[in-house]
Design goal:
The protein is an all-alpha fold. It contains 19 helices and four strands. InterPro entries: GPCR_Rhodpsn, GPCR_Rhodpsn_7TM.
């Protein structure tokens, strides 16, 4: 029997006993049982604890919001301040992820923080729809840009020549524009009726609602495939390919492939040492041949000058002129044969440039390690949140509802990804870690080129090539000098 039945029964009871008016009505049914004092005493601690919980969650949300704004702004400042960090491949894609994080911080995290302190959404429903749309857009942009970044790293480490052809500045900007258009279209579906954006009071955020997915289960499956399965699977495939290639190149275990080790700490195996000596011997032979060719060219030029002088002096005698012509023909034939035998210097330079481009660089593979940490962070944060959303959507059919605590923790994990992603970049990526102090000191970074002429390495983007050759730079330079002298 409910409260209404109780109130009518009590009314009938007193009416039967001749009372002219009932003692209580429906609105004051609790006053008859004298439980008002008990309700106030039991509800007061609950309201106090909920208010304290809202303040605590609001404080945590404000810390995440401030950290997101500061850390992502530092990444943007590094990109704008140092030209060496503006390489068309990874720098533009990392900047794209950073801009997506800033969009979420301004349009979603700040209103969500205010909602925790005030207890509800204070803005209008169109603003809530816009906030949900932009946060969903930024999430799509982040995960798909991360997948493209892993593809870029695969080309840079495994196929450098293809990387030079594909990731030019123009092509990279077109690719980023395509990612923005793709994210805009994917986030537009709930606004046109396939799904629904709404305010979620437990998480204090505007996002895709469970009610919208209950009416459109196909949109739930489409969102899971496009935001989790496709980008994460693509990133993992290219990550495995880079790790296997790097392990094969460095002859080390897969666990040490992505490490940003000191160059001097890398030990050279016997096989690699023999290959290095063989390369040095070939280089010395080529240099010696080129020197001989230059000497022969000088001798030919001197011979031609002397022949011209002899022609002027002995122009009276035809016999001497005929003999001089025969000698000139013999000398020209010998010089042409020498030129045919000498190696092509332009082909040699092109082959050497190609070899430099295709050389394995551990620093390029080290960026894959940083991206792997970001991928792991997104996986840990967004997979529990999507699982909780799916359980909440399927609750009417399965009778399994996720607890409110799980929804709150999963939501805050997704908030934390926008703050931790730039922190991982600033701490783990060596280029950003080295240039961050220079951003505050105002000093210009200078590239150290002292060892580059001795080793024959490239200096690209303000960073030396890594590998065994750099670890043994002095031995390599001394070995080349001694081999040339001995020859």
């Amino acid at each position: 029997m409910n409260d209404t039945d109780n109130s009518t029964a009590v009314t009938d009871y007193f009416t039967d006993y001749g009372t002219s008016s009932p003692v209580m009505d429906y609105d004051n049914v609790t006053s008859y049982n004298d439980t008002s004092s008990n309700d106030t005493t039991t509800n007061a601690p609950t309201t106090d604890s909920s208010a304290a919980l809202n303040v605590g969650l609001g404080s945590l949300s404000s810390i995440i919001t401030v950290t997101t704004l500061v850390a992502n702004s530092l990444v943007v400042a590094l990109f704008a301040r140092f030209p060496s960090l503006r390489s068309p491949g990874p720098a533009y894609l990392i900047l794209n992820i950073t801009i997506a994080n800033l969009i979420v911080a301004v349009t979603a995290l700040i209103p969500n923080t205010v909602a925790f302190f005030t207890g509800g959404w204070l803005l209008s429903d169109p603003v809530c729809q816009l906030s949900a749309y932009l946060s969903c857009f930024a999430f799509h942009l982040t995960v798909h840009t991360l997948g493209v970044t892993f593809f870029e790293r695969y080309l840079k480490v495994c196929r450098p020549l293809k990387h030079l052809e594909i990731f030019t500045p123009t092509v990279t900007l077109i690719l980023i524009g395509g990612l923005w258009f793709f994210a805009v279209v994917l986030s537009l579906f709930p606004l046109v009726g396939w799904g629904e954006y709404a305010y979620l009071p437990i998480q204090r955020q505007c996002w895709i609602s469970a009610a919208g997915w209950q009416g459109h289960l196909t949109h739930m499956g489409f969102t899971l495939v496009m935001t989790l399965l496709l980008p994460f699977l693509t990133s993992i495939v290219f990550l495995i390919a880079v790790v296997r290639f790097a392990a094969k190149q460095r002859k080390v275990s897969a666990l040490d492939v992505l490490g940003d080790q000191e160059k001097s700490g890398i030990q050279e195996t016997y096989g690699r040492k023999m290959k290095r000596k063989e390369r040095e011997l070939k280089r010395a032979i080529r240099e010696r041949k080129l020197k001989k060719v230059k000497k022969k060219k000088k001798k030919v030029k001197k011979g031609k000058k002397s022949k011209k002088d002899n022609k002027d002096k002995q122009s009276s005698s035809s016999s001497s002129s005929s003999s001089s012509s025969s000698s000139s023909s013999s000398s020209s034939s010998s010089s042409s044969s020498d030129e045919d035998e000498r190696p092509s210097y332009t082909k040699y330079k092109e082959a050497k440039k190609k070899q430099k481009v295709e050389r394995y660089r551990a620093n390029e593979a080290a960026l894959v390690r940083t991206l792997s940490w970001i991928l792991l962070l997104l996986f840990i944060a967004w997979v529990p949140y999507m699982v909780a959303k799916c359980l909440e959507t399927l609750e009417p059919t399965n009778d399994i509802s996720p607890p409110d605590e799980l929804l709150i923790v999963a939501a805050f994990l997704t908030y934390a990804t926008y703050a931790l992603t730039p922190i991982i970049l600033l701490v783990d990526y060596r280029k950003y870690r080295k240039t961050l102090p220079a951003l505050f000191s105002g000093k210009k970074l200078k590239v150290e080129e002292d060892h580059a002429p001795n080793v024959g390495l490239d200096v690209e983007g303000g960073e030396m090539d890594s590998g065994i050759e750099l670890a043994n730079a002095r031995n390599l330079a001394e070995g080349s000098k001694t081999s040339v002298k001995s020859n």
